[in-house]
Specification:
about 260 residues, mainly alpha, MetI-like fold, 10 helices, about 70% helix
């Protein structure tokens, strides 16, 4: 069985054009919801990682009030359980394959949770689409967490001191001063994550999400051709990612010009 490209195979794909259009819509929706969920998770995780909650701080001093420099009690006094949980989340999800995470979410978690069985927009199966979004969102959140954390840490600490001198609380300082500047700095990186998700969303066809790769699989099963449908899918992904990346680069240049004085 040959695997060379045969032009006469492309007309055989035309009857399945609707599947590719539907797959395109599913891929875009997957990416949008994934980045939205991932950003919310990442913001919470980044703030948790930057927190200074040490419930055992009192163990850091001895009976005479002298700070302990070494030893188990000194280590425990510096332990931040909130930051530890966030760090563990980020490291585990960044260090394991996304396909494994998708299978665990779909078969392990939503396998015992009965999701509503209905179709969105006439062709998107909610019981498969939602677990895919959750899995990709959790994975994206781990990567976006580090982007947001670095953005917050890039803001000059003097601005926090100025906010305190004005009587702003830590929450007000983070909401009105730090986060707006940090988000402006990391906006291009967040947009680039959207492009990455467009490509990574292809893995969700393994749990039955009807994206572009699902259309390729359907054409292969019906016509027994594979290279030509893959080329069509490649062209669709390129038409999604390339213009998006160029638009992101354009706005990134505009934002960098605006920062110059």
């Amino acid at each position: 069985m040959g695997s060379f490209i045969q032009l006469e195979n492309f007309p055989k794909i035309v009857p399945y054009a609707q599947l590719f259009w539907q797959g395109l819509a599913v891929t875009v929706l997957l990416s949008v919801f994934t980045v939205a969920i991932g950003f919310c998770i990442a913001l919470v995780m980044a703030l948790m990682r930057l927190s200074n909650i040490r419930p055992f701080r009192f163990l850091g001093v001895d009976a005479n009030g002298i700070p302990r420099e070494t030893g188990a009690l000194a280590f425990i006094s510096k332990f931040n359980p909130v930051s530890f949980i966030a760090t563990a989340y980020v490291e585990i999800l960044r260090s394991t394959p996304v396909i494994v995470q998708i299978f665990i979410i779909y078969y392990g978690i939503f396998g015992v949770i009965d999701l509503p069985n209905f179709t969105m927009f006439g062709f998107i199966k909610f019981e498969r689409f939602f677990p895919g979004v959750v899995a990709l969102g959790m994975n994206s959140g781990a990567y976006l967490c580090e982007i947001i954390r670095s953005g917050i840490q890039s803001i000059d600490g003097g601005q926090t001191e100025a906010a305190r001198s004005l009587g702003l609380s830590q929450v007000q300082n983070m909401r009105y001063i730090i986060l707006p500047q940090a988000l402006k700095n990391i906006l291009p990186a967040i947009a680039n994550e959207f492009v990455v998700i467009i490509k990574e969303s292809a893995i969700t066809y393994t749990i039955g999400v009807q994206d572009i790769m699902s259309a390729v699989n359907a054409v292969r099963g019906a016509t027994f051709i594979i290279i030509e449908p893959l080329l069509v899918a490649t062209a669709i992904y390129f038409c999604l990612c390339f213009p998006t990346s160029k638009v992101i680069a354009y706005f990134e240049r505009r934002m960098s010009h605006g920062d110059k004085r």
